[in-house]
Amino acid sequence: MTSLTIIDLSNNRFSGPIPPNIGESIPNFLYSLLSNQITGIIPKSIGYMSHLEILDLSRNSLIGSIPSFISNYSYLYFLTLEKNNLSKTIPKSFG
């Protein structure tokens, strides 16, 4: 799946946690799980998606803090995590 660049799984009624190894198996540039019923934390393996440009995890039921690896993306220009149950702490080096 190395040529895959867009994954849009929005509005599919997916539930449960994001698989912990998702970033190891799906190299992509645009990733959206908008408006599902995703629970749990943002997995650390999403940090392995080094060319990620868009990450939309909004309108789910994610918990925990915003991972510090979010601030390490070189290409990320759109991030939305709104309408989850994430802590309000934004990594210091983000922005």
Automatic annotation (TrEMBL):
Family recorded in the similarity comment: Belongs to the RLP family.
Keyword Calcium: no
Keyword Cell membrane attached: yes
Domain of life: Eukaryota
A Pfam family assignment: LRR_1
Membrane topology recorded in Swiss-Prot or TrEMBL: Single-pass type I membrane protein
Subcellular location: Cell membrane
Protein name as it appears in the record: Uncharacterized protein
Keywords: Cell membrane, Glycoprotein, Leucine-rich repeat, Membrane, Receptor, Repeat, Transmembrane, Transmembrane helix
Natural source organism: Vitis vinifera
